[in-house]
Amino acid sequence: MTLRTALNDFKRHRGADDVVPGELRTTTGTFAGDGDRLVHVDDDGSLRDYSYPLAGLGGIDRSRFGVGETWLDGGADQRYLGDTGVVETIHDVDGYRVRQRDLTVGRVHVTRFDCEGDAPAAPVLRAYVGFAPEGRESGISHLVHDGAVEAYHRREHDYVGVSTELGDVRGQVPERFPELVGDDPVAFPRETETERYEDAVMTGDLLLEAPVEDGGVTLVTLLAERDETTREEALARVSDAVETYDSASALERAGERRRDWPVPASPPAETVVDDLRVLSLLSAPNGARIAGPDFDPFYVGSGGYGYTWFRDDAEIARFLLDASRTLDVDLDAWHRRSAAFYVRNQREDGSWPHRVWPGDETLAPGWANARLASGDDTDYQADQTASVAAFLARYLRACDPSDPGRIEDALARAVESVDGTLADDGLPVACQNAWEDAHGRFVHTAATFLHAYAAVVRAPVDADLREHAREQADAVLAGLDRLWTGEYYAVRERDGDLDERCDSGSLALAGALREYAAVANLDAETVDRLVTHVETTLSALRRETDAVSGLVRYEGDGWRTGPQDAEKVWTVSTAWGANAAAELGSLLDDRGDDPSEAFRRSRALLAEVTPGGSLVRNNGYLPEQLFDDGTPDSATPLGWPHALRLATVAHLAREGELAR
Fold it and tell me: Which residues of the chain are under the pLDDT cut of 50?
């Protein structure tokens, strides 16, 4: 995303109620991705790269396609082809149809157009593709080759080629300064008088034409780095791709072969494939996951999403580990990559930083890196380290790693780090919360500590480490008394006072206490408190309108609420509620208590994030948030609720409670 495209969006949506002007939203459209390239196919078939966090490459910044004199700008039907990553977009054009199929194969993206019905006799594909190598919008030039065009800055060279004869190629002059500061957005492609002879060459914005032959034409783009791929090699790859994917059936077959996610023989729900596909799309080759597609790299309305948070990533990894056993899907390679990624990025003090770039694992911009600077732990998110520790302990117990000693060493250092942020009263010290918008001593942070310590007790590690973790788990459980209000657990203690609002993050207590129950006896009072807490929290955070039903993030949440007075519904909170209720149901069942109401509430919340529910898009994606009128907002798809949905489906299926 360049500043020019952000300004154009700002001008188009200035004054809008349900979007933040200047962001490049993904709440419409569907993603194709593979390895470190992630391409968004919008509802009109236009393409844009969201690959920078994964690959460090800018790629396509904006695009537009047309057949003949008609631009494919209208809304279209869109879907994935079966269990593959092939995106199909069907355009109705003046009495005939254009069927568009998109597939990403490594750093190659293939788009196939096929005309069906009463199409013109000799249609021509018109393709406007604006490249932004290295995220640049200036200092770019292009070269026209036989059958392909190359746009480049310095390190990054991007290519576009076609399967038929490459016709007219015209460089598009980007917005000039008066246009940038003007009130009106600029539409592309356009005819512009060049003021200098080089204007039409010193640009990465291209308009090219190619004839549609035998009803179809294939367009290929390739992102390449100069030090890795020579020009000759890149042009050869483009030429090979347009020949290989010269038909719709070729794309479909390739989609089957390139699928990076397993498909269960008898999945308990159709969302299983949707969730695995989304989590694969958001993953770099090293296993690190971005939180979601980075729709806001200029931080217009957020702090960016195209980074790897160790909390989010580790929670996703643990949910995948648990679900894969129940669903009988082989995700061992995913688990190994996650464990290795955490071990590589652990700091000397046993903690993990706020967030990193997933592609090269370097420190990313952030606001919770207190442990990398001087000062106290107030601007540190201690739950991140606990979440990673919980996964590593679970991984050691469930899998057969080739280097268990190295993982155990990382786990021991992580426990020591968690110890350092646990106060004498059994609660974590004051730090940042999971939502990254407040400070204090949070019940969610305490829940992650409890879960981590209990998981270590169950892990095949040194007996002294297990015993120490057991003592620490007991201390955290006792410390939770300080947050008990008499009806539920307060969100936090701050400066000695309780903040008695309800917070969906506190629902992590259900899984944490169930993990603790596997290593120690829970007394009846603690279980009763958990039941009351979950019921109270689910009721307090429930929000229903004519369009949506689910849980808000916490009471009084005013972030990105736009025109509405009340909090927005969040999919991660709703899925968390479903998961917590399922965990509570199993805990009650294990004790011989009646779990029926807990499982019922789990199914009711799960229904809102599964097909037919109010919070899920037609392609199975879960946006982070939704307005009261059902308009999705923020990162789409967001990885965390997809992992929660997958884990909850697997949990309820294992208990025989998925369909009642």
Answer: none
Sheet containing 431-432: order of strands:
431-432, 439-442, 492-494, 497-499
Rounded CA gap, 127 and 200, in Å?
16
Cis preceding-peptide flag for 267 (omega within 30 of 0): no
Which tokens in the block code for residue 187?
A: 């539409």
Measured between alpha carbons, how far is residue 262 from residues 32, 274, 284, 311, 637 in Å? 17, 11, 17, 25, 19
630 sits in the region (left: phi over 0; alpha: psi -120 to 50; else beta) called: left
- C-alpha 635: how far from its chain's center? 7
Torsion region of 100: left, alpha or beta (phi above 0 gives left; psi -120 to 50 gives alpha): beta
User: For residue 60, which of 188, 163, 239 has the smallest C-alpha distance?
Assistant: 188
- Candidates 268, 143, 132, 267; CA nearest to 204 is 132
CA 360 to CA 308: how far, in whole Å?
Answer: 11
List the structure tokens of 259: 């699928």
Is the Cα torsion angle 288, 294, 298, 303 positive or negative in sign? Answer: negative
Helices (H), 591-631: 596-608
Report yes or no: 110 and 33 within 8 Å, Cβ to Cβ: no
Of 56, 143, 155, 45, the C-alpha closest to 107 is 56
Give CA–CA dist 332/320, Å, rounded.
Answer: 10
Residue type, 199: D
pLDDT of residue 178: 93
Tokens standing for 4? 């020019």
| Residue-level pLDDT at 528 | 98
What is the reported pLDDT for 199? 86
Long-range CB pairs of 546-550 (<8 Å, 24+ gap) are 547/614, 547/626, 547/628, 547/629, 547/630, 548/608, 548/614, 548/615, 548/626, 548/627, 548/628, 548/630, 549/608, 549/614, 549/615, 550/574, 550/605, 550/608, 550/609, 550/614, 550/615, 550/626
Amino acid of residue 40 = H
- The pLDDT assigned to 396 comes to 98
The total number of residues written for the chain in this structure:
660
| Contact status, residue 29 vs residue 93, Cβ threshold 8 Å | no
In degrees, to the nearest 5, what angle opens at C-alpha 262 toward C-alphas 258 and 264?
Answer: 140
Do 314 and 393 contact (CB within 8 A), yes or no? no
Question: Which pLDDT does position 374 carry in this prediction?
Answer: 85
Q: DSSP 3-state assignment of 658?
A: coil
Helix (H, G, I), strand (E, B) or coil at 633: strand
Coil, strand or helix: which one is 58? coil
**Residue 37: its H or E element:** strand 37-41
Retrieve residue 593's tokens: 């208590």
- Phi, psi dihedrals of residue 588, rounded to the nearest 5°: -65, -40
What does the alpha-carbon distance between residue 500 and residue 484 come to, in Å, rounded to a whole number?
Answer: 9
Question: How does strand 216-225 pair with strand 497-499?
Answer: unpaired
Rounded-to-integer distance, Cα 122 and Cα 124, Å: 7
Q: Are 310 and 353 in contact (CB under 8 A)?
A: yes
- How would you classify the pairing of strands 37-41 and 30-34? antiparallel
Alpha-carbon 623 to chain mean position: 9
**3-state helix/strand/coil string of 98-154:** EEEEEEEECCEEEEEEEEEECCCCCCEEEEEEEECHHHCCCCCEEEEECCEEEEECC
CA distance 618 to 192: 40
pTM for the whole thing?
0.98
Question: Where is 96: in which H helix or E strand?
Answer: strand 96-105
